[in-house]
């Protein structure tokens, strides 16, 4: 990915440029914010949200054309993970007495670069880009958002902003689990048997497509009404978890080389028995107690408890001949570069459940809260995407 970025520099991109002060001298912008944690009634529309400022040389300001919602937005609205995220926002506690509010939610963005910091050489104003903004930063349900240059990538040329906004957060979450943590890549996936639990959501639909792009054999678990979608995305076998005992259904199949678990809960108690023993087979779960532990126990005790839990589980399963791992979303412009190439080559497509206008953000949250989405809930910040 880094080589690809260097190649684009060589192909005529301006190598350096300074910060450009906006001639509009904007100080406020429209945004959806929360002033406290709670249910959907804490969402508030304002036209007076502070305009984002470039604080570091590697930052860019993006005019948001489209955003989308993820389960983490529901969780953050309710206060989940606040302890860890506030520590990340202000690790040295320099802003004593200040709070994270008003807080803008939304992690995905597809839009246009408006301003660049002094150290930004890869982008220029007017570039169409996409990104997933980390949860400790102000989010994308605004007219503008600030991001680090290394979190941003050029938007796939074949997608509209509405389509592109459906992919970054789920794509990077799946990429983290499968590639960064799980060690899977284009050169080692051919013929491997992959099981994806929770295959019809945003992360699951992306993971199915990525594994098929890398020539793996994919078994997908979802409900019956999502089976047509998942098969269309390329899954070789689709198992309806409502049609009987899921564990017993999966035990009738050959053992797997890799399991991606988007479900968690009791699944973890039996899913690892479906892996090939002593072959390097790996189970990766995206459902971890890390943020819950820190909310419940505080930073120090929460981190200690988390370390003990993952360490004990890793050792327990290693002694049984399989690898146990946790994975998390990781922002990465270079990884989005690779995802964009897969999108433009037709190997991955966005899966969108429903599109809402910017005025309908509360309705979009209620839609997501209802569950059983088939793909992503997208917000058009600028109409007619």
From TrEMBL:
One of its GO terms (biological process) is nervous system development. One of its GO terms (molecular function) is nucleotide binding. Residues 38-379 form the Enoyl reductase (ER) domain. InterPro entries: ADH-like_N, ER, GroES-like_sf, NAD(P)-bd_dom_sf, Quin_OxRdtase/zeta-crystal_CS, RTN4IP1, YIM1/Zinc_Alcohol_DH_Fams. One of its GO terms (cellular component) is mitochondrial matrix. It catalyses: 3-demethylubiquinone-10 + NADPH + 2 H(+) = 3-demethylubiquinol-10 + NADP(+); 3-demethylubiquinone-10 + NADH + 2 H(+) = 3-demethylubiquinol-10 + NAD(+); a 3-demethylubiquinone + NADPH + 2 H(+) = a 3-demethylubiquinol + NADP(+); a 3-demethylubiquinone + NADH + 2 H(+) = a 3-demethylubiquinol + NAD(+). It is found in: Mitochondrion matrix; Mitochondrion outer membrane. The keyword Acetylation applies. Keywords: Acetylation, Membrane, Mitochondrion, Mitochondrion outer membrane, NADP, Neurogenesis, Nucleotide-binding, Oxidoreductase, Transit peptide, Ubiquinone biosynthesis. Its main location: mitochondrion. SUPFAM superfamilies: GroES-like, NAD(P)-binding Rossmann-fold domains. This is NAD(P)H oxidoreductase RTN4IP1, mitochondrial.
């Amino acid at each position: 990915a880094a080589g690809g970025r260097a190649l684009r520099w060589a192909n005529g991109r301006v190598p350096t440029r300074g910060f450009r002060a906006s001639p509009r001298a904007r100080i406020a912008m429209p945004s959806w914010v929360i002033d406290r944690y709670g249910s959907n009634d804490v969402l508030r529309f304002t036209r007076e949200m502070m305009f984002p400022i470039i604080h570091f040389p590697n930052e860019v300001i993006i005019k948001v054309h489209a955003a989308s919602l993820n389960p983490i937005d529901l969780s953050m609205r309710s206060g989940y993970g606040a302890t860890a995220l506030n520590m990340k926002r202000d690790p040295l506690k320099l802003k004593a007495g200040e709070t994270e509010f008003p807080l803008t939610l939304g992690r995905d963005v597809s839009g246009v670069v408006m301003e660049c910091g002094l150290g930004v050489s890869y982008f220029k104003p007017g570039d169409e880009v996409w990104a997933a903004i980390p949860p400790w930063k102000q989010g994308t349900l605004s007219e503008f958002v600030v991001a680090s240059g290394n979190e941003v990538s050029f938007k796939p040329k074949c997608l509209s902003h509405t389509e592109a906004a459906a992919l970054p957060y789920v794509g990077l979450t799946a990429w983290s689990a499968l590639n960064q943590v799980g060690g899977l890549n284009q050169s080692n996936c051919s013929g491997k048997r992959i099981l994806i639990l929770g295959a019809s959501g945003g992360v699951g639909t992306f993971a199915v497509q990525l594994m098929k792009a890398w020539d793996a054999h994919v078994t997908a678990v979802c409900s019956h009404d999502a089976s047509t979608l998942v098969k269309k995305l390329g899954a070789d076998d689709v198992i309806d978890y409502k049609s009987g005992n899921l564990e017993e259904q999966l035990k009738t199949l050959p053992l797997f080389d890799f399991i991606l678990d988007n479900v968690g809960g009791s699944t973890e108690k039996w899913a690892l028995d479906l892996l090939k023993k002593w072959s390097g087979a790996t189970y990766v779960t995206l459902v971890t107690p890390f943020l819950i532990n820190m909310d419940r126990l505080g930073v120090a005790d929460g981190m200690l408890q988390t370390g003990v839990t993952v360490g004990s589980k890793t050792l327990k399963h290693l002694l049984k001949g399989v690898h146990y791992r946790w994975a998390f979303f990781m922002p990465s412009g270079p990884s989005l570069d690779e995802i964009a190439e897969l999108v433009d080559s037709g190997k991955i497509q966005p899966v969108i459940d429903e599109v809402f206008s910017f005025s309908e953000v509360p309705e979009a949250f209620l839609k997501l809260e209802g569950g059983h989405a088939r793909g992503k809930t997208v917000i058009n910040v600028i109409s007619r995407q």
